[in-house]
Specification:
The protein is of the alpha/beta class. The chain has 10 helices and 31 strands. The chain is 25% helix and 29% strand. Helix 3 packs across helix 7 and helix 3 packs across helix 9. It is elongated.
Length: 415
């Protein structure tokens, strides 16, 4: 465990508005990291995990969203957790490693021994304290969280080979075309401040190469228009790959749940995973009811204190109900997220769906998906302020904001 003299800081990479287009329409009016999973913002789950890091001095959110999008959240979470949380806005995308280097003065302000780094769009148990114990023993400049997955899915991630005895990272390839390994990079790291020297070396080599290289006028124009190429540095390809096999990077295995949150379908899957985790970590977040004075809750369900659920409703498993939502008599909810201000009228059914802010589901209406979280139309997604009228059936659809559905629709994207 960390000694009493050690200081740690944490960095959560939140990206920016030029990314996350696959998350639409849920990210049209809300930064993706603030989308609620199991009742809390996506970024809140890694922040809660960081709170358990010993001798934690600061948590930094690094991205290129406008600062105003995070102002209220950062203020509220700092007060709630009693840990300073600060949003650092990049002037442009610098890459995951370049973003760290860009704010190195901020990150080194507390003279940290270790810098925890994680991607916001990762859903896992974040075993940061156990990782720190291993990292301290390895005595390298970085430790990666890794997991074994199926050979079929491994190519979607960074594949790696490590020494089974020492844990040393021997080889790393980001989304390789040919199979390398069933072990993948989970996007959670611990680095010593030496990581900044490694990033600086990459950036310096690029600048030297750009200066010395003779180019044609056409190539020179291309380089000029691609501003910031020399300071765009990625953690995976530009740092992990060249440092592998040099006794500088090591791995720590997790056998618990892990997913990437790239699409709304995966957010619904990850909300279920976090709800299940609450059973061990925060059972007070889970709703309880007897079907008499309160609704019947089956499995893991989160209900915001301001939401109103009729006692005759049947809710669960894997349901998250946000602030000021209203669920009427006889309603059945399974595997869904209701966002702020949603109204579900009597005897409606919602399954495998995400219902956008201030949307309304009519009496005896049915909104459902097939429950395939990876498929484009595997769940139904209603954007903000969508009205589904009485007795209408919506199956496996994506509906953009401010639409009214008065006829049955099946497997459509409604613009």
């Amino acid at each position: 465990m960390a000694s009493s003299e050690e200081v740690n800081v944490a960095v959560i990479m939140v990206g920016g508005p030029t990314k996350g287009t696959r998350f639409r329409p849920l990210s049209l009016n809300l930064a993706k990291p603030l989308f609620p999973l199991a009742g809390h913002a996506m970024v809140h789950h890694p922040i809660l995990a960081c709170k358990k890091i010993p001798n934690l001095a600061h948590i930094y959110l690094v991205g290129f969203y406008e600062e105003r999008e995070f102002t209220l959240y950062v203020s509220a979470v700092s007060n709630e957790l009693k840990v300073p949380v600060r949003y650092l806005r990049e002037d442009k995308p610098h890459g995951s490693a370049g973003g760290l280097y860009n704010f190195r003065d901020w990150l080194m302000e507390d003279d940290p021994t270790n810098i925890f780094v994680m991607n916001c769009d990762v859903c896992c148990s974040f075993p940061l304290s156990d990782m720190l114990v291993a990292h301290s023993k390895y005595n390298g400049i970085g430790t990666l969280l890794v997991k074994k997955v199926s050979a079929e899915s491994a190519s979607e991630f960074g594949e790696l080979v490590s020494d089974p005895e020492t844990g040393e990272l021997l080889h790393y390839a980001e989304k390789p075309e040919t199979f390398v390994s069933e072990w993948i990079n989970c996007g959670v790291y611990i680095f010593t401040p030496q990581i900044f020297l490694a990033i600086q070396d990459v950036a310096s080599q690029r600048k030297d190469h750009a200066t010395m290289r003779r180019v044609s006028s056409f190539e020179a124009l291309q380089i000029t228009t691609k501003s910031g190429q020399t300071d765009f540095v990625r953690l995976d390809q530009d740092i992990l790959t060249p440092l592998a096999g040099k006794k500088k990077l090591y791995t720590f295995e997790t056998t618990e749940f892990w997913e990437q949150i790239k699409t709304p379908g995966m957010s619904l899957r990850c909300s279920a995973l976090y709800l299940a985790q609450y059973r061990q970590t925060a059972p007070e977040f889970l709703a309880k009811g007897d079907g008499v004075r309160s609704a019947t809750y089956i499995g893991d369900v989160y209900v915001h204190p301001s939401a109103k659920v009729h006692p005759t409703a049947k809710v669960g498993p894997n349901v998250s109900i946000s602030a000021n939502a209203r669920v009427g008599p006889g309603v059945r909810l399974i595997g869904c997220i209701l966002l702020d201000g949603v109204e579900v009228k009597e005897n409606a059914v919602i399954m495998h769906s995400i219902i956008g802010w201030k949307s309304s589901i009519g009496r005896w209406a049915r909104v459902q998906g097939i429950g395939n979280y990876a498929a484009k139309l595997g769940i139904t997604i209603l954007g903000e302020d969508v009205s589904v009228e009485d007795e209408v059936v919506v199956t496996s659809c994506i509906v953009l904001p401010h639409k009214t559905l008065n006829i049955n629709v099946h497997e459509e994207i409604i613009l």
